[in-house]
Amino acid sequence: MCGRFAVDKDTNELIEEFVAAGGDVHDWAPSFNLAPTQQVPVVIESVKTGELVRRLETARWSLVPGWSKTLASKFPTFNARSETAASKSMFSASVKSKRAIIPASGYYEWHTDPATKKKTPYYISSPAGETLAFAGLYSWWKDHAKADDDPTSWNLTATILTSDAVDDLLDIHDRNPVPLPRDWWGRWLDPATVGDQDFVDAAVEAALPVASGLEIREVAPLPHQGEGPELIRPVEKAAE
Fold this sequence. Notes:
Layout: E1 5-7, H1 11-17, E2 21-22, E3 31-34, E4 39-48, E5 51-61, E6 79-81, H2 92-97, E7 99-104, E8 106-112, E9 119-125, E10 132-142, E11 154-164, E12 175-177, H3 185-189, H4 197-212, E13 215-218
């Protein structure tokens, strides 16, 4: 799974990297400690005034389908299992035509010692410092308690797809996000491509070389507050 991640680039840098138009990005700023239900940057494509537009938006990190009566969910929706997303009512409509890329500098994962139950955090990122493009899904949720012309009544929400962990990560966790290679960005985002389970499986397969080449380093426990770059500094091991 992926329960915390980092983005070290500002919105202008992300717009340039993903060749996207500037959407409604509010006053979002880089953070090294993004958590579920917070606003995170997402790249989506949709038809605006008859033209397909790729844009950067911010979304609530926990997907809520349009049919839900509440924005809060009874169970976690910040991750979606790639193996079942196309068949789950929570995610199936998004798999078909509302797919997103969630940019990330890296993400955190915790290894739990089976004997002591101690959790050790690791930061996982590209060794070259490249931005990761996590395969994601998005959905718009409307708050019907607000007036139809109230712009705050619409909430963009998103989730990150996960798959079985690649061999390099199995010692830490049994799941990892799906980091799309660059030649899959346009294909994944295109709403004209009707997504199904075969399409998702192909994306997971294409992501394997990226996921297998990531750098893993132990870091200090994450604080509840704080979002600076010091969070990804490697833990210095004591000399034996």
